[in-house]
């Protein structure tokens, strides 16, 4: 079920909100959320809902066992077992066919692929549950004794399938006891409406443009760059819009989910970009991979190795294709270069140049990200620089540049803090009307675009 | 003050989400959307198979989308947002220019066009070797604004492929007889009363120009409102068209029949209220129609292989041919055609398809 679908917005959500409102006490409310989450996932993955239930029970049992045997070898074995099960699920569903394809390509074999479809959101919920058992093992969290509460955490529908990656410690207290305030609900609604607007009114429109480019037989250098910029905007508004909706829904139900984006396109270095982009994933790899490997408190060589491992894994986490690995490697190399010497140079450069440096590299990175395998990477990157003798400008590119100019401009401005800064300068009095009005207009406009049956995928669903 | 803001925000959200949800439940389901010319999705049936195959959730989304309250209004809001808010030049491939609605067709499918030409050739070789064969290509509306920056087919290439590939038939170029004002504003089709020059050129090429019914002998009948095919797709608030058809002594006396033709006239006007008002012309999607014209000025026969553009063209030949057989290869395969039609040696044959159909010619079989 998509947040930006009528089934969710005008059937599922009202029913869940109503049941949630009338459920007495936090425990009952948790059960409403659990049931709703299972229904939510069942609508998208009818069979794989069992995987979610299995994951909840497995990590619930493991965590209790780890806590019971804290400090003993048994706890470590249980932790390893939990990690193996989680990574095993992820590996089987996400990487088996990728590995088979790679082996076939390298060795000339013809091992048949499994064709097993990827369960939606598996990369997110396996990371969440792994962080839970690791935190219990490290003593940072107490094992949840109540299976229902544990399952509510694992399955919680607002962030189940596309993040942000919520760790158990982030919501442990709220799972046991949380306050529902008018302010919290209103702010949740506002956040949800703005997220919906980002997704439907901007990301989907940019998505149409990228699809038009893909379908076009009239490619040119200009069209490749138009596509690259549109895709960079699409993926930002798509993913950050989804995160906003998730955070907003969480707030409506009394949860405070971690932030996931902080205007990444205003960064002045790639290091800063990754502090602002998909922050919960970056934090996860930092706390559960990078630091356990020694982080930067080790020899320079091992430090660089640690960065390389984290970024190869980050790339592979995003998709079981070599272009995703390449994408991760690209950022790993850039971060190494920045940490070794470029970072200091960037600090001294005029802001315009460092912004341009980040934007060009990020746009290029997303071209790699969205390519169809390594061949697609070569074709798309080549197209940006006129490879294959394509013309500099084509009539179609000019037409679509004209057609989407306003939308692109709105998206670019929307990707900066400028609208928020301007809004914050307003006095409180007009906000009393403006804020509810904006939320209402965004919902109506989004509904209009959804009803029209426009382009409506969620890019991060495949991860 | 903040409390008032919070209360208002929650109130707006509750009214919208719950209000539309309840409205959706109470609203009776509709069968059809006349502006979009399609059947609307109905409530899906619940079964274990549908539930576990995700078919139910997909069907439910389609159903709720199709039966949403104020659906037409929301679609108009979408169009206004795109055309006037985002200043997009098109929405869903539909663009507006000077009060006319167009569809962008950007990909010139050379393989499909070649297939269309090959299909003509196959028909000519199989049955029409002893006939006088002609073909024409009807330009779509975008042809007339092709130099104004809108995406369009590569018309030069399309016409060149046809002229190069079609063998054993004479090409009659009708482009100089047409202009944008001869097409409906909201529809893809041309207007029948604007076709006299076109018919004359075709008639002259086929040697029956002098037998065509002059414009003065026709009576125009107007049906309104005509929702063109692009009107629903554009979803912008704009005036509908009036559909006009022409009758004459020849069309009135014509005897029309066909394996699926259940009407008794050239213009079954009862179809105007259906999904596609243009079906008034020879009943719309018909595989084969025979029009016998007892009062025709000649005893010649004409076979027209056509798409929907040919539906409004064929009646204008009723004065010049004793029998007109209208064939639509989208609805009858060439393999089965001899079961229904016996081609008379010496007859005239006219292939008339639009650029849009030729660009997707594999829909013809």
Short synopsis of the structure:
By secondary structure, chain A is mostly helical.
Overview of the structural elements:
The complex is a heterodimer of chains A (463) and B (365). Chain A is an all-alpha fold and 463 residues long. Chain A is 75% helix and 0% strand. Chain A is built from 19 helices and no strands. Chain A has helices spanning 6-22, 25-44, 49-68, 73-107, 122-138, 147-155, 157-160, 168-176, 182-215, 221-252, 270-276, 279-290, 300-318, 322-348, 351-369, 373-384, 395-414, 418-425, 428-451. Chain B is elongated and about 85 Å long. Chain B has helices spanning 2-26, 48-52, 55-66, 71-85, 110-127, 155-165, 196-206, 229-234, 249-253, 308-313, 337-340, 355-358, and strands at 32-33, 38-39, 90-91, 94-97, 100-103, 132-138, 170-171, 219-226, 241-247, 255-257, 288-292, 301-306, 323-327, 348-354. The mean pLDDT of chain B is 91. Chain B has a 7-stranded mixed sheet with strand order 7-6-14-12-13-11-10. Chain B starts with a helix and ends in a 7-residue tail after the last helix. Chain B has 365 residues and is an alpha/beta fold. Chain B is 33% helix and 18% strand.
